[in-house]
Amino acid sequence: MEFTDGFVSNENQENHKSALESADQFSVSPLRISPKSLSLPKSPRSPSVSKSPRSPSVPKSPRAPSVPKSPRSPSVPKSPRSPRVHGKGSLLKHERHSHSPIDGRPKKGGSGGKGTWGGLLDIDDNYFVDPNDPNYDSSEECEHSNARKSTGDFEEYKKKAIIIVQEYFATDDIASTSDELRELGKPGYSYYFVKKLVSMAMDRHDKEKEMAAALLSALYADVINPPQVYKGFSKLVKSADDLIVDIPDTVDVLALFLARAVVDDILPPAFLTKEMVSLPEDSKGVEVLKRAEKGYLSAPLHADFIERRWGGSKNKTVEDVKARISNLLIEYVVSGDKKEACRCINDLKVPFFHHEIVKRALIMAMERRQAEGRLLDLLKEAAEDGLINSSQISKGFGRMIDTVDDLSLDIPNARAIFQSLISKAASEGWLCASSLKSLSLEPEKQALDVSAARIFKMKAQSIIQEYFLSGDILEVNSCLEAENRTCSAELNAIFVKKLITLAMDRKNREKEMASVLLSSLNFPADDFVNGFVMLIESADDTALDNPVVVEDLAMFLARAEVDEVLAPQHLEEIGSQCLGPESIGSKVLQMARSLLKARLSGERILRCWGGGGSSKPGYAVEDVKDKIGKLLEEFESGGDIREACRCIKELGMPFFHHEVVKKALVTTMERKNEILWGLLEECFGSGLITMNQMSKGFGRVAESLDDLALDVPDAKKQFTHYVERAKLSGWLDSSF
Predict the structure, then answer these.
(1) Per-residue pLDDT tens over the stretch 381-417
(2) Packing angle between helix 390-407 and helix 354-367, nearest 10 degrees?
(3) What pLDDT sits at residue 565?
(4) Containing domain of residue 500, as a range?
């Protein structure tokens, strides 16, 4: 059994062959030994390999059944596969490489072939790092454990976040929810909470939507970092295509959430443009972003509308808000802490009701003169910081002008004090005095020059006669401005008397034109009152030429109230100046009141002279209602709010605007869509629809609630909700 000259003896070959044949077919495949390795003269272990005494006891390789080939011919000096022998001249005891000449590796370096171990980086679910492995690396085990731990943490966070959202919707407790999120930790996953909160609210009622928006505003920057809020909304927009499968109105609802986030300053406006670039043009996410930008954020007074779209200011009544305003002003006067006062104003979340803050602060400044400077400083800072906008400032001062006479009963020289407050605010630049109604200090009336009055009467008669021919109201206004440059109240009253006197001697067309002109004149209400008083005082003389003067004057008076030229209390003022109960003036007032008390008085008085005014034929009531219904329907389907206001104004029926209020409110309750509510806000804010018409409209809805409940089961509940909102917005008196 000696190796000589690179050849194997016959005896050794026979022993080697018998060892191979006696091997267990399930044992490790025998190593293939090249002649070259057997020719090593100094290898004492080579005979043990040839006999392979232990191979039958190691059943580890399923590839053993392959038939091993006999060693190559001894005449071959070298084997091309000899490099597969491992070690430095010795063979490993448990070497796993096959003795078969066939290479078990898949072709072209692939992986996953039959009988192979897979790719270099392929691992299965049972993979683990063996610390006894010679190639063991502790960092590898750390990476894999961190990955598994991170996945587990996120899954746990998702489950707890859903529970927190569900509990919040059940309890409406922002403080408790905030504490639970802090305890949960993991601020890096907060974006998922934002996404889950909004997506769950989208599939619920308006109450939950409002709760979600309020919670996000409360948690922003305090519990949830701004980048996490941004990321959460980004993921919501990208998942719009999936959300719409379960929530059909995803585009509108998610767009409103985005707009609300922008209004609440928890999302930058640039979010819309940045996200739009990263989305496919045909995705629902793009529709959401466009709807938010063009449908909500571009509309006038969009902030107020968006804040109240889902109810806003929930669980607040007008009285509650007023009480909180009084308390914060009292605390500010005592402490002088402007930052704290501004924070309290911001926490009220009623930007549309800030005029009440202005009004109460002014009243307190007039009652407590020592606190005047401090209160004016607060209003100035709130105005400069944009906390109270200029519109609310002007509205607050305007409400004070209307009530300053009542304040005079409790505050001596209230008018003079208030005039000084206006001057200070205007001089400091945070009040536009030109936007306010005039506040006179009631100077002594100067006697009107008789000759000037006579000349004006002649010119007024010429202006009126020309108007009856042309129907040009703008020309009348320009002529009056030229003739009455001093805006004399006496001359205005003379014009009113002359207009009605000339109209009573003419046909119904001219009477209708006179009423339309009265509603278009920019005279103070007192001038109209004085004009009607002069008419009633001269009614006895007028009756000599016009036997039906009582009926005509009563109809003009009633029409003036319907057109809101005069207020109901003005009739009482006119009646107080009548001479006696049997005078013509008393009869005129009595008939005017009976006309106004009749059922559907507005429509009847409208048509008494043909309606429509000027040279145009009058509208029938049904035609007007049809026009109102069509313009509301057109606006609801995506029209322009300015165009809708223009159409309402062109109807030329300010006394019939309560029908607009009624139809808009009923449609809002039926369809649960507050787009028309936004139109009412714009109309009231611009003065197109007055408080009187708002009250009439709401009153007519209240009368028809029983019938409406047949189609809208929760009509009474909705109506109560909208009445509270209207009171907060100043549309309705608190006594409604």
Answers:
(1) 998 888 888 888 888 888 888 788 777 777 878 888 8
(2) 40
(3) 81
(4) 448-606
Looking at the fold, whether 567 and 494 belong to one and the same domain comes out as: yes
Instruction: Output the six-digit token pair for 658.
Output: 């309560």
Q: How far apart are CA 730 and CA 483, in angstroms?
A: 38
- Is 169 a domain residue? yes
Any idea what the CATH number is for the domain that residue 465 is in? Answer: 1.25.40.180
Give the C-alpha separation, 384 to 548, whole Å. Answer: 60
State phi, psi for 224 to the nearest 5 degrees: -110, 125
Last residue of a domain, one of 257, 284, 307: 307
**Is residue 56 predicted with pLDDT exceeding 50?**
no
pTM comes to 0.33
Phi, psi of 195 (to 5 degrees): -60, -45
Q: Please report how the helices 691-703 and 675-685 are oriented relative to each other, as an axis angle in degrees rounded to 10.
A: 150
Residues 393 and 332 both lie in one domain: yes
Q: Given this model, what pLDDT does residue 66 score?
A: 45
Please name every residue paired with 7 in a beta bridge, in sequence order, or none if there are none.
Answer: 4
Contact 574, 536 (CB under 8 A): yes
Q: Do the domain assignments include residue 681?
A: yes
**Which residues lie closer than 8 Å to 679 by C-beta, 6 or more apart?**
632, 635, 641, 644, 645, 664
Asked if the structure places residue 409 within a domain, the reply is yes
Q: Whose CA is closest to 518, among 534, 495, 539?
A: 495
Q: Domain for residue 55, yes or no?
A: no
Nearest to 454 by CA among 486, 487, 498: 498
Tell me the C-alpha to C-alpha distance, in Å, between residue 188 and each of 70, 195, 701: 66, 13, 51
Determine whether 154 is exposed, middle or buried from the number of CB atoms within 10 Å of its CB (0-12, 13-18, 19+): middle
The pLDDT tens digits of the residues spanning 99-115 come to 555 555 555 455 555 55
Q: Can you tell me whether residue 583 is helix, strand or coil?
A: coil
Domain count along the chain = 4
Looking from the CA of 710 toward its CB, the CA atoms found within 13 Å total: 3
Q: 3-state DSSP call for residue 7? A: strand
Helix/strand/coil for 220: strand
Helix (H, G, I), strand (E, B) or coil at 4: strand
Same domain flag for 470 and 573: yes
Q: Alpha-carbon distance 267 to 293, whole Å?
A: 13
